[in-house]
Amino acid sequence: MNSELLIQSLPKQGYALLPSLLSPDLCNRLIESYNDSQLYRKTIEMQRYRFGQGEYKYFQYPLPEVIQKLRNILYPPLSVIANEWASHLNTGFSYPVSFDV
Question: pTM of the entire structure?
Answer without folding.
Answer: 0.74
